[in-house]
Specification:
425 residues; alpha+beta; Rieske Iron-sulfur Protein; Naphthalene 1,2-dioxygenase Alpha Subunit, Chain A, domain 1; 8-stranded antiparallel sheet; 4-stranded antiparallel sheet; 19 strands; 25% strand; globular
Length: 425
């Protein structure tokens, strides 16, 4: 059981909090590169770890992520003009470059005053269709993100994001809770285009789940075992990679999937979903299905990152389809089934009232790892899971004889092999 104090430690992510300072040691996915599609395009609001920021691409293609508010009178620079290598406040014309430095002060000629005015700014990099930012101490800046999907060509990956109205942690915990697949998603395993007609979809319906959890350099390797054909077990391996990434066990030859749950603030997060295939392009018909909210992706209200099915409309729950078993909780789509349940807990879960059992071992272990990492950073130590090797791993699913050694097979199955297909049934 988690105490109120421990829950506070784990869920608060603003500046100066243990988790906030830990998370600032990692490169953070901030925007899709399509949100800043061209030079001098309109700026975009970004909120990360409780900080209100503005992002823009300047006349030379450089990207800035800086404080949203002008140093003069606190006006939002979202109303600013992106022009001539800087973002100019539309109130009095103060202008800032991608480093937050004031480069033009029309009312005060001369450089002396202007040089003293600088907004907070964070370094950025474009990689894998994502604009990443680093919000931590410059001396602690880690190597660039090294997940498999960031190295694949655009034809081999699809990345989306959606706003989730909950704290990041209950979303992460949902991602590493493999036992819920047998219940929450059971109505869709036979029909979802990325799961149907696979051995994995057949065996994942088994509700008798046991776990074997291995430590990894990046986080945890979570093995969930279910009964398969007589004498065999079906194993699903979920990767949890510090601090908020999960890789979902694949089905047959279908693409791999992953998530990142990035805190917007303590009560909201951005749920990133990545679908990627290491050896072949994502078929156009699959891309179309993803855009319609199939698989791990959600259908979005046009022009926003808010799902069409959301808290305000009870996720468009269909009680008739719930009763028939088509959608186990009456909500359409894997992504929004997860979101509806995770958001229903509340904006921040009260973990002091939980009753955890053996199927919750991964959740308990992940919490312990996060607490340990937060305490280590508080003491001046290093954040874990930052080496390139820690991030370059895969999830897997496979069938093993009951007597087979899980650990040996699992460690081999999750190894990244350049140009090789993944292990899945």
């Amino acid at each position: 059981m988690v105490t109120q104090e421990q829950n506070e430690f784990l869920t608060r992510t603003g500046p100066g909090t243990p988790m906030g300072e830990l998370f600032r040691r990692y490169w953070i996915p901030a925007l899709l590169d399509s949100e800043l599609p061209e030079r001098d395009c309109p700026p975009v609001r970004v909120k990360l770890l409780g900080e209100r920021l503005i992002a823009f691409r300047d006349s030379e293609g450089r990207i800035g992520v800086i404080d949203e508010f002008c140093a003069h009178r606190g006006v939002s620079l979202w109303f600013g003009r992106n022009e001539e290598c800087g973002l100019r406040c539309s109130y009095h014309g103060w202008k800032y470059d991608v480093n937050g430095q004031c480069v033009d002060l029309p009312s005060e000629p001369g450089e002396r005053v202007r040089s003293r005015i600088k907004l907070k700014s964070y370094p950025c990099v474009e990689l894998g269709g994502v604009i990443w930012t680093y919000m931590g101490p410059p001396a602690e800046k880690p190597p660039l993100p090294n997940f498999e999907w960031v190295h694949l060509p655009p034809s081999h990956r699809v990345t989306t994001k959606r706003w989730q109205e909950s704290n990041y942690l209950q979303a992460v915990e949902g991602g590493i809770d493999s036992s819920h697949v047998s219940f929450l998603h059971r109505g869709d395993l036979a029909t979802d285009p990325f799961h149907r007609n696979t051995a994995g979809a057949k065996f994942a319906k088994s509700t008798q789940t046991t776990f074997d959890i291995l430590d990894s350099a990046g986080g945890l390797i979570i093995g969930a075992r279910r009964d398969a054909d007589p004498g065999n077990c079906y194993w699903r391996i979920t990767q949890w990679i510090m601090p908020w990434y999960t890789l979902i066990p694949p089905y047959a030859g279908n693409a791999l999937n992953g998530h990142a749950w990035v805190p917007i603030d303590d009560e909201n997060c951005m749920a990133w979903s990545m679908t990627f295939h290491p050896t072949q392009p994502i078929p156009e018909e699959h891309v179309a299905l993803i855009k319609d909210g199939n698989g791990v992706h959600a259908e979005l209200i046009p022009g926003t990152f808010r799902p069409v099915a959301n808290r305000s409309n009870d996720y468009l729950i269909d009680r008739a389809k719930q009763k028939s078993g088509r959608h186990y909780n009456g909500v359409k789509g894997l992504a929004m089934q997860d979101a509806s349940i995770q958001e229903s807990i509340g904006r921040i879960a009260d973990r002091s009232t939980e009753h955890l059992l053996s199927t919750d071992r991964a959740i308990v272990t992940a919490r312990q790892r996060l607490v340990k990492a937060g305490e280590e950073v508080q003491k001046g130590g290093k954040a874990p899971g930052l080496s390139p090797e820690a991030q370059l791993v895969r999830s897997a699913s496979f069938i093993l004889p009951v007597e087979a050694n899980f650990e040996e097979h699992a460690l081999n199955a999750v190894k990244y092999r350049e140009g090789a297909a993944h292990v899945a049934v």
